[in-house]
Hints:
By secondary structure, the chain is of the alpha/beta class. The protein has a domain of 141 residues: Rossmann fold (3-Layer(aba) Sandwich). It contains 8 helices and 9 strands. Helix 2 packs across helix 3, helix 2 packs parallel to helix 4 and helix 3 packs across helix 4. The relative contact order is 0.18. Adenosine-5'-triphosphate (ATP) binds next to helix 1.
Amino acid sequence: MGALAVQTFELGVRFGDFQALYGVNLAISPGSFVAIVGPNGAGKSTLLKVLLGLDPGNLRDGEARLTGKAEVFGQAPKALPPGWVGYVPQVKSFDRSFPALALEVVVSGLRRAWPFRIAPREREVAMAALEQVGAAHLAGRRLGRLSGGELQRVYLARSLVRRPRLLMLDEPATGVDAVGEADLYRHLEAYQQQSGATVLMITHDWEAASHHASHVLLLNRTVIAYDLPAVALCHECLSRAFGHVGHAHSAPVIR
Length: 255
Ligand SMILES: Nc1ncnc2c1ncn2[C@@H]1O[C@H](COP(=O)(O)OP(=O)(O)OP(=O)(O)O)[C@@H](O)[C@H]1O
């Protein structure tokens, strides 16, 4: 296969007169587990949206402009075969009022359309994905009756159901308790070991990043550091990304 999982060349995104990202040059090898760390408004979600092939101009009102180039497995994100990329959005963006069952949500990831009738084979594949994230018992539950952590697992199962080569997660551990967070990493690492997939995960938890990620991308509108966690999370890099690194955050555990 040979191609890098993700490569960007002087990537920039501008919303009106606000430059959200500039000069982003990345080369991420297949099989990496990358934690994307940076302050609020650093452009982390914007970067993931570009890699998902979404047009940043369509995200909100106003003019947006993309410059430079992004490639996923050597191709423009929009040109990738369906199923190569999985995405788990932030829990807060999930619509729980939608009257659906967890199983239906997972099958919708398989079909990319709402499953009014679920075929036996689809049920089998979706149940396997739910089992993979320890959520088979949630299959028949309505979304509105799931906790934040349970909902997170259902969407993780949905993102895994087509066995993506690149999995992107936007703050998956937010609102999830410590056990749920440990489970999340366990499931991600197990999937990665089986499949060799590349994982990009936005997180505000430096400690978890330093424990679980193979690499850390420290971002503040441009790349501050992309390196092994112990290097990218050094005090100087964090100060450059966050400004003053005060006592509000626990110091990262450097192994
Ligand atoms: N569609 C849009 N229109 C205008 N501005 C936008 C749009 N999308 C993002 N922005 C702005 O771009 C900047 C980067 O946003 P983004 O959501 O990528 O940051 P983030 O690093 O993910 O932040 P957080 O940690 O708070 O989730 C922010 O200042 C945001 O307000």
